[in-house]
Design brief:
24% of the residues lie in helices and 22% in strands. With 246 residues, the chain is α/β, with parallel strands linked by helices. It starts with a helix and ends in a 5-residue tail after the last helix.
Amino acid sequence: MVVRAGYFMTVSKISYIVNNKCVINGKRDLVTIIKLPNYPLTEQFGKYNKKFPNFDQELMISKSSGHVQLKYILDQKYLYSPINYKYKTKVSHSTNHALEVFISFFNKNFHGKINSILDVGGNDNYIVNKIAKKKTKKNVIDPVAKKGKDGVIVINKFLENVDLSRDIVQPNVVICRHTLEHIPDPKKFIRKLLNECRDDCRFIFEVPSLERMIETQRFDTIMHQHMSYFSARSLRLLIESCGGKI
């Protein structure tokens, strides 16, 4: 992610909400795992400045569901403004390998014709163009994606502001790679997809692994942009609580 450093220096106050209940089952049984006072925004590049924005943060776990999530949720319009969020999907060898793993997984698990495909958080359209054929109806919903000449319909909005049954050709495939962990209310997010897409629609998600994060001691993967830290169990609980089936 590349940022114009001067932009952050002009920001005086950022709104946030306190996430005091489990985003999966709604219970107020969160316990603090780790406190991160004055935690700076991560994935930012630029000249060092000691006044660079930082915000108190805490990592919480639900005693009932075992789901791990952030306590403080920063304003989404701030985190994902076009001038701020400059991440591109295809940027490095390691990223490209991860993309190929996802594409391989998709090809092994989806067999059939793709009439219309939707990529939520599709970024630079790389994945959707790799998966779908040229004549397939291709849609990307992403507030910071850019429209190109590749025939992909790009909607620069958050999913909550799009009517999937009206604004696009109904997809029979939805892909969502490394987006769900960024969503403040993942339950509302998934329910919207299930309710507004075709009954036979298939959904393919990829999220960072909490188990892997703990195993490799990747403290650096805790960031203000990642609201949720899914384990295999908590992700299954979330999907099934929304009426989905794995």
